[in-house]
Amino acid sequence: MSELAPQPPHTSSDDLDSRSAGIVSRGVAAGIDVGTVAVILGAMYLGLLLLSLLFNSGSFSPPSPGILFTGVVGYTTAVVYLAGCWLVSGRTVGSVAMGLEVVSRNGKRIGPSRCLLRALFCAFFPIGLAWVAVDRRRRSVQDVVLRTRVIYAW
Q1: Is the separation of the CB atoms in 148 and 10 below 8 Å?
Q2: Cα(first)–Cα(last) distance of the chain, in Å?
Q3: Cα 66 from Cα 14, distance rounded (Å)
Q4: What is the pLDDT of residues 96-115, one digit of tens each?
């Protein structure tokens, strides 16, 4: 008796086109991800605040990082969050909530380098998501450049 090898769940190009996520579900997922990154940043600030209180309890004043530092830490946190989620499961918190998954053109999970490039691209150029509204195959600018897809994967 021979066992059939498991097939990837998304193989056909027509199947991927019919399951491509639209602007509303992707926009909601992106909003949830922005909120998730904000919560992570808040937790990091709270940790910094507690460490500062622990080591400077006599002359405590809350840390006030500059705008440049905050921007760099925020961008880095977003990139690490996105790339890490896509690498581990192909899904972020927002994607899970909306039933979405990031895959390659052939429906397989994307590799580490493409996860990182996509995360850098999404964090640096978030308006690229708006292209989903006009592209007939529902791809963002990031999807077009990096040959990825965001599909419904319930």
Answers
A1: no
A2: 32
A3: 49
A4: 999 999 999 989 999 999 99
